[in-house]
Amino acid sequence: MSQAILVTLDGTVRDPQEPFLYADDLAAVRGDGVFETLLVRSGRARCVSLHLDRLERSASALDLPKPDREAWRSAIEQAAHTWAEQYTDGAEGMLRLVYSRGRESEPGGRPTAYVTVAPVPARVAAVRADGVSVVTLERGYSIDLAGSAPWALLGAKTLSYATNMAALRHAEREGFDDVVFISSEGAVLEGPRSTVIAVFGRTLVTPPSEIGILPGTTQLAVFELAEKEGWTVKTEVLKRENLIQADSVWLVSSVTLAARVTAINRYLTPVVENGSEFSDLVDRAISIDRE
Question: Which GO BP terms, alphabetically (predicted)?
Answer without folding.
Answer: carboxylic acid biosynthetic process
